[in-house]
């Protein structure tokens, strides 16, 4: 009876994590699309300063992580010093800025799909630079994802979707997304290196260090450089309070979503988190198509299915690998 109760609690906790990640990031996606396409106020002005979203997100997550450390940390030392995140902070500032800037040139579903192909640059770098050999099923996953994204990019986008974009330019938009993936890869590798050197570093330490440097870099970029648009972004928010509210909600969704991701990884592992976030991306595309008026053709839906079929197969391969490792440990 006790085991049954424990199992039920795990199911309820997992359901809670799924609901939290889906709700936070799907709503954040809706807000991101709204801010990049909507015309605010009677003057019908667009919010052109999308890089400002990254600064706002950094500030909110910085405050949030600081509060979480004060509230929940055991007060132990041994984590990575704050200055060790300076290099990862650079790529973590440039990468997301490129990803969000892409929304000026391609639709939100196209951006989500392009950013889902993270395995492509990872495998290219692994095979070309480090000489890693991958299995045939892994190459099949990559082929499905790369083929789906490429076909989606080549298919004609509906005129209704194009009319919402600030500056339609598919090659530039997809180029920014793939640069975003490249910078993300460096960021993840640097974070792994930091946690390897400082094993006592927890998720809140990483969140604090990354967002501290992100805030510094974005403040310099938005307010310190001659062509920085920080003051214009603040002025726009003063003139259009609706946009300011959307930005605040966007940032809170990101912070809350991080909480649920940390909880999922700590209780159920990274594979469960990957599965939840991958399915969330698919649902985000569906929500964008239905609610935001970005109609996809049957061929485009086929490309979406192709990409998420490849991602699902990749998750299955990771699960099988994990099962084999666990069996070896038992024997």
Descriptive report:
79% of the residues lie in helices and 1% in strands. The mean pLDDT is 85. The two termini are 29 Å apart. It has 331 residues and is an all-alpha fold. The longest helix has 36 residues, at 2-37. It has helices at 2-37, 51-72, 86-101, 108-115, 119-128, 136-154, 159-164, 170-197, 203-224, 230-239, 241-268, 270-291, 298-330; strands at 39-40, 45-46. The protein has one domain (49-329). α2 (51-72) packs antiparallel against α9 and α6 (136-154) packs antiparallel against α13. It has a two-stranded antiparallel ribbon with strand order 1-2.
Write the SSE topology.
Elements: H1 2-37, E1 39-40, E2 45-46, H2 51-72, H3 86-101, H4 108-115, H5 119-128, H6 136-154, H7 159-164, H8 170-197, H9 203-224, H10 230-239, H11 241-268, H12 270-291, H13 298-330
Antiparallel strand pairs: 1-2
